[in-house]
Amino acid sequence: MVGLKEELLKSIWHAFTALDPDRSGKVSKSQLKASGGRRARGPGGVLSHNLCTVLNVPHDPVALEEHFRDDDEGPVSNQGYMPYLNKFILEKVQGNFDKVEFNRMCWTLCAKKNLSKSPLLISDEDAFKVWVIFNFLSEDKYPLIIVPEEIEYLLKKITEAMGAGWQQEQFDHYKIALNTSREGLSAWELIDLIGSGQFSKGMDRQTVSMAINEVFNELILDVLKQGYMLKKGHKRKNWMERWFVLKPNIISYYVSEDLKEKKGDIILDGNCCVEALPDKDGKKCLFLIKCLDKTFEISASDKKKKQEWIQAIQSTVNLLRAGSPPPHKEARQKRKELRQKLLAEQEELERQMKELQASNENKQKELETVRKQLEAAAARAAEEEKKRLQTQVELQDRFSLELEREKMVRQKMEEQVAQKSSELEQYLQRVRELEEMYKQLQEALEDEKQARQDEETVRKLQARLLEEETAKRAELEKWHLQQQQTIQMTEAEKQELENQRMMKEQALQVAMQQLKQLELERKEALEQYEEVKKKLETAANNTKSWKDKVAHHEGLIRLIEPGSKNPHLITNWGPAAFTEAELEERQRSWKGKKATSE
């Protein structure tokens, strides 16, 4: 609604300013309201009533009287009329009005007064369309102007619609001449520029009129594409030629291009889609528009037109899905934002330049002040230098006299200094001799002191060594006594150990003899064991034969085999030749022999 209000205000501004003959910015109330039967009704006297009529807003004739309570013939300023316009008219606009009719009403009020009297190459209708396009492309500030960038955009669109080539160099020259005098053109100057044919040379009036109408349809009526195509009926299924007009949210189709008889609308939204169809029923270049409630089959004149319409409809649906405005409105907004950005940067640059200029001026003033101070200082320095030179001459004369006197005094002083120097030299020689003697005496005292310290150190060392020697001697005597006692004890233990060793050697020899004896006895026992074993095998074979016979004749009988009552011992070489009791008896015999030998 804010964008719609801005567009309405631009057209109303033209009508309002047309009612101000002396351009004072003030208009009488009788020109803004309905006459109420007391004043003549004319284009300028019924502005408020006509606005309410074309905008489909209820008209309140009392509101203007209550809003301005001064004399009925008193003037009303532009600033004072704007609150009334916003509150009682624009705030009530719903958008259900004919934009062309509204603009034509405002054009009627302002065109006769402002339109150029010189002949133009365009008709009044084309001038009206250029005026409406101007309101669309002009800046949002008053008085309204169209900047060179928008003029170039509009002229390019018209040139492209005419099928001619764009003369950029010609426009650049025009733009340079325009920028040197003003920021842009008014609506009437733009009409004069286009009507003069300066940028449409070689084109007839009809071609220029058709180009202006095409740009008007695109920018103002939001016509994205239009043309003749065949449409298949929903009931009778027949094909009829219709004039189609594509807008951002609707496709309207008419009987002819004069748009007098509308046959229907195709409402577009984000759910619609368009698809190409193969040729059928003798119809070519077919495509299909699918909506939620209906489907439309359409036939284009050729493949190129078919592809153009499919792309245009699909682009419109994509914009509806994204919620984006029509391309020309989005491009205009982007151009405005870019100009605002460039203007802000330019203002910032100008502000910085002003700051730099002010800073430069301040620096210049400071430099001028410093220069004046330096000149004054130089003058003072020259005066001081002159006085200094004069003073220097006087001082040189005085110093010459003083120098002569000082030479004489100096000569006397040198003689006295020579005498004093000789005496001082003798005195210094004597002092050096005394210092030398003092040093020698100091060295002698130091040597004596060091000798006494060394003597004391040696004496203390001898005393300590003597004490240590006495302690060592006592300790050695103690160790000697302990060694003697240890030697005596060692001799006795050695004798006892020797006796024990002799006894153990004797016992070992006895044990070796006994072991040899046992070895002989073991061999004898093994021989006896072999004999017994052979006898046992023979007896076992006999017993087995006998047991088999008995078992065969008398049944199973438990036999008791003969053997020793005592258990046999098993050695590493087999069964022992003696029993455990015999072994114990022999051990007692060995122990007795060993005790006797000890």
UniProtKB/TrEMBL annotation:
GO molecular function annotations of the record: DNA binding
Parts forming coiled coils: 328-549
Matches recorded under InterPro entries: EF-hand_SWAP70_N (IPR057836), PH-like_dom_sf (IPR011993), PH_domain (IPR001849), PH_SWAP70 (IPR057837)
Keyword Coiled coil: yes
Annotated SMART domains: PH (SM00233)
Domain PH: 222-318
Region (Disordered): 22-43
GO cellular component annotations of the record: cytoplasm; lamellipodium; nucleus; plasma membrane
Subcellular location: Cell membrane; Cell projection, Lamellipodium; Cytoplasm; Nucleus
One Pfam entry name: EF-hand_SWAP70_N
Keywords for the protein's UniProt record, in alphabetical order: Cell membrane, Cell projection, Coiled coil, Cytoplasm, DNA-binding, Membrane, Nucleus, Phosphoprotein
PANTHER family hit by this protein: SWAP-70 RECOMBINASE (PTHR14383), SWITCH-ASSOCIATED PROTEIN 70 (PTHR14383:SF6)
Protein purpose: Phosphatidylinositol 3,4,5-trisphosphate-dependent guanine nucleotide exchange factor (GEF) which, independently of RAS, transduces signals from tyrosine kinase receptors to RAC. It also mediates signaling of membrane ruffling. Regulates the actin cytoskeleton as an effector or adapter protein in response to agonist stimulated phosphatidylinositol (3,4)-bisphosphate production and cell protrusion.
Subunit structure, interactors included: The SWAP complex consists of NPM1, NCL, PARP1 and SWAP70.
Name of the protein this chain belongs to: Switch-associated protein 70
